[in-house]
Write a structure and sequence with these properties.
418 residues; eight-stranded mixed β-sheet; globular; 2 domains; alpha+beta; 10 helices; Fumarylacetoacetate hydrolase, domain 2; SH3 type barrels
Length: 418
Amino acid sequence: MTGLIRSWVESANAPDCPFPLNNLPCGVFSTADTDPRCGVAIGDFVLDVAGLEEKGLLSLTGGPLLDVPFWNDLMEAGPEIWAALRARLTALLAEGSGDREAVTPFLVPLADVTLHMPFLVSEYTDFYAGRHHAFNVGTMFRGPENALPPNWLHIPIGYNGRASSVVVSGTDVRRPWGQLKGPDDAAPRFAPSARFDIELEMGAVVGQPSEGPVTVTEADAMIFGYVLLNDWSARDIQAWEYQPLGPFQSKATATTISPWIVTRAALEPFRTPSPAREKPLLPYLAEPGPMLYDIALEVGLTPEGGTETVISRTNYAEMYYSAAQQLAHHTTSGCAMNVGDLLGSGTISGPEKGNRGSLLELSWGGKEPFEIAGGSRSFIQDNDTLVLRGQCRGEGYTIGFGDCVGKVIPALADPYAR
């Protein structure tokens, strides 16, 4: 595994710094004096790459790619340009670089910036591809003998979500209204969700379009990078609506992503194989090599005025299907994939109770409340703040994604009351 690439930005060389020169994640930032613009995190700073391009210090093609407040244009330019960007930034920021004096004015302290959506989301698809999560949820509703649907070990199950639901970390999430029906209710009622939940996921950002089916190898090359993703879920709305077509309004409240896209190149040293297959996959889903990543994940919950409790720890390596397999499967119908498409991995849970990536699992459907500092929870209460964190550990360095944070605020008064 590659060791730390040292930078003249000293804060980037600390072993626990999430943004060393090995990382160079892509985001969009603004300050009190500037509009949103493209930047790359390095140490305790954001490097204003749009500014570097304007001044001629970063020239990747015959024209500008970073003069817009999103990374879609750069992604569309293709993998050769992605590699050229990484190589040029590494050269500018590496220890001993002769460009230090020219680059220093383009460093902005992270403490002074506001972070925005890093890319324009074209489409959003969410998968159900974590075996432990699928088994836990299936066991709750169908028993362990029938926990996994018959197709689950053969196909990455997913549904098309709403791109408009995707928001950046730090955006408040309002508790949704919807149709609810409990087991003893004669008829549904319209009320705020009482069983509001998270799902700990990774999101794959598609950086190249497709026309027609692609292989797993081709799909992997199309992925620009990854974000942390919280698929907020209203379990009581979902329970009433999901038969027979699956989630709809229960998943449309919000989907929070972390503010930095960690590129596939930065994650390359952390590749790890998928789990052993319980049933052979069809050839089009065969993986040419390791397609998952060793990314340690955790979820923290902080009640209003309280202290945080880490309620779950797991790893992206627990997934059954990789993002490349999901993307390849997505194209089998001829469905065109677009630059800026976002694929949610599905909830990432592990084999132990402390590895479960949703409150539905942690509280076993609300039957087993779990302890937090100063109380307990079954589902999210108003003014709770949930944070997802992820990191890879290299030799003397850390690759981080930035926190993925959302606070649940109370539902509005009945929007249909007149």
